[in-house]
Amino acid sequence: SRISPEAPVPVNRVSKMKEVLGGAGNVASNLSNLDCKAFRGALAGNDDHGRLLQHLLDADKIDTTGLITSDDRCTIIFRP
Q1: Per residue in 27-48, pLDDT tens?
Q2: pTM tops 0.85, yes or no
Q3: How many Cβ atoms from other residues are within 10 Å of residue 10's Cβ?
């Protein structure tokens, strides 16, 4: 670890990243894990992040018939 030359903050090396559902997707995931039927409606881009979203929802057995993908949109992501 070292101090950034731009500001007096430490510079950290990323050792791993984990992509998870956030917000309403996280709620749907929690419900699904409690054996509740979860349905997720959303508008996502036809891009890598949209495909990842589909994969994460499918992995948690969340109904994605309401997931609409579009070539005209980009899937919104959040990185803290």
Answers
A1: 999 999 999 999 989 999 999 9
A2: no
A3: 8
